């Protein structure tokens, strides 16, 4: 009798735990860095973003099937687009922070 290493229910519970824990971890990180708002914002972004991607990934996989090339390509495109957006957002936020430090904003 084969048994899954982790069931779908357990994986969903893990993602829900990340959704709940990430803001708390972000707050702790923000407190350590003396930037509570930034820590909370990062924690919320990570938690909600992770859960949203997990939900979209599952919807795509349920629709296209787990073992299909089409599923692989659609999820690859999704994560490439999200990665580019995250990189551009981080670069924009970093450039904005440097301008504020220099007093240009």
The dominant shape is flat
Helix content: over 70%
Q: Roughly what fraction of the amino acids lie in strands?
A: under 5%
Question: Could you report the average pLDDT, rounded to the nearest whole number?
Answer: 89
Q: Supply the helix-strand structural class.
A: mainly alpha
How many H/I helices? Answer: 3
What Rg is obtained from the alpha carbons, in whole angstroms? 18 Å
Q: Summary?
A:
With 105 residues, this protein is mainly alpha-helical. Helices cover 84% and strands 0% of the residues.
Features:
flat; 105 residues; mainly alpha; single chain
Q: What's the helix and strand layout?
A:
Elements lengths: L7 H25 L3 H29 L4 H34 L3
Describe the structure.
The chain is an all-alpha fold. It is 84% helix and 0% strand. It has 3 helices and no strands. The N and C termini lie far apart (65 Å). The mean pLDDT is 89.
């Amino acid at each position: 009798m084969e048994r899954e290493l982790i069931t779908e229910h357990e994986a969903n519970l893990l993602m829900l735990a990340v959704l709940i824990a990430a803001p708390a971890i972000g707050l702790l990180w923000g407190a350590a860095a003396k930037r509570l708002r930034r820590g909370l914002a990062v924690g919320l972004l990570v938690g909600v973003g992770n859960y949203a991607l997990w939900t979209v990934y599952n919807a795509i996989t349920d629709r296209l099937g787990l073992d299909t090339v089409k599923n692989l390509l659609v999820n690859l495109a999704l994560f490439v687009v999200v990665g580019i957006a995250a990189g551009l957002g981080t670069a924009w936020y970093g450039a904005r922070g440097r301008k504020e430090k220099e007093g240009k904003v």
